[in-house]
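Design request, tokens follow.
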């Protein structure tokens, strides 16, 4: 992973070269095979993940053998960012949909960086908030569609 790559990751695209170098110094790459869990729903990991190559599925377990896919993420997508705010257990599992290379920023390391560098923290938090707002709007639209279809079905 390099500066040019990181600049294409939405939550890091406002960082200057020096700030990008700091983030790059925190990233450790890990390879995942198709079907391997990056993390599982309920785990308390607080790391941030960036897809360098490959594809992952964000899923909720409905039964031990049935999953609901919430999203599919690909190169340049980051995930796991909610844990930077609330440190709550993971709300979904993330599974490699194909062989995937992921950059991982350890949760305590990024928290320490944010505590010591408010400029980097502000830039990244702003981009994360924008991403969360987009996801919330999408979720609201889907919920509204489901409510509408439910009301139509009752007629």
């Amino acid at each position: 992973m390099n500066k040019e790559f990181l600049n294409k990751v939405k939550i890091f695209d406002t960082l200057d070269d020096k700030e990008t170098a700091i983030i790059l110094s925190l990233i450790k790459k890990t390879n995942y095979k198709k079907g391997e869990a990056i993390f599982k729903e309920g785990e308390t990991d607080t790391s941030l993940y960036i897809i360098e190559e490959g594809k992952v599925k964000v899923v909720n377990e409905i039964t031990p053998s049935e999953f609901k896919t919430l999203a599919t993420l690909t190169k340049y997508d980051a995930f796991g960012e909610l844990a930077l705010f609330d440190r709550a257990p993971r709300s979904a599992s993330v599974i490699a949909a194909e062989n995937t290379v992921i950059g991982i920023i350890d949760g305590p390391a990024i928290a320490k960086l944010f505590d010591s560098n408010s400029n980097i923290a502000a830039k990244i938090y702003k981009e994360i908030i924008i991403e969360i707002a987009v996801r919330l709007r999408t979720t609201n639209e889907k919920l509204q569609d489901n409510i509408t279809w439910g009301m139509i079905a009752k007629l």
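Comment from the thread starter after seeing the answer: thanks! The helical segments are 3-6, 17-26, 82-86, 107-116, 118-154.
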